[in-house]
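Researcher: Please translate sequence to structure tokens.
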Amino acid sequence: MACIEKKSSNGSRTSILFLASALTPFVPAGAWAQGTAEAGYPTRPLTFVVAQTAGGLVDTFTRSMARHLSARLGRQIVVENKPGASQAIGAEAVAKAAPDGYTFFVGAQSAMVLNVVSKKSVPYDPVADFSPVGLLFRTPFYLVVNNSVPARTVGELIALAKAKPGKLTYASTGHGSGHHFTAEMFKVSTGTNILHVPYKGSAPAITDLRGGQVDMMFEGGASALPMAKAGNLRVLGATSAKRTEAMPELPTLNETIPGFGVSIWVGLFAPAGTPRPIIDRINLEVADFLRQPATHEQGKAFGIEITPSTPEEVSAILKEELPAWARVVREAGIQQE
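Model: Translation complete:
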């Protein structure tokens, strides 16, 4: 009690603090001290690590979110791009960061699930090494081809691939990425043989696709749709269950390949051990960003579905998807690297 009275600036505040401690006799002293220390959070800039190259969907969305949260929190938020190794470099950096609430990972399903089940080992555990903050969005992929590819529909592309087995190429953002898995599912579903060309991110992959170095790619809307609308690429279909709000005239792949569908999610994660009050504060601020009309307009333009959630809902997704995608790896014959 003497310690609480010493921190008080006047008698009234001392009485309130005394009453609070009297009514909560079973709250450990350490937990109370932690709560008061976190009341002033944040006291310095935060870092959001993005495991993709600048200019792609996740990077673009994160920078919008960072600007909003920076204004709300009163502190700068630095977006740091750490691409490579199918997002493992960025994930590992955050997994090993101090759990003090100043470093977060904008983690796609690729890093938190697909990378884990498609590699013999990764330098992090998506469950043990992270504390989920919440989901950000879900998105289908869009099947895009360069303008020199003669196919104008999904059916025509399948026919072309079957006529030229092993000749067509597809780009991905790396082995084990969602782009990679979706293309392999496409090959299995259609009985085609298409060569995989991995890149370190969406931006260089799209550049080569546009330049004709590769033939096709499953890509997010932020990169694919503007180029398709500008006539730089041709979009053939979406992997969503139904036609998207961004391009309602565009067919889904399941209209040609019954049952084919892929939805990729992106969430925000902190290092394991980050205090729950900080997790809850960031979740609250992220939810405010996701509610903004401008965010929904951005989502519509990118062809994504804004999807706020609780930390527990993200944990449940990981628990469900890790074994489910491991089965896909086995059934598709994807070799672990």
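Researcher: Any highlights?
Model: The CA atoms of residues 13 and 19 lie 10 Å apart.
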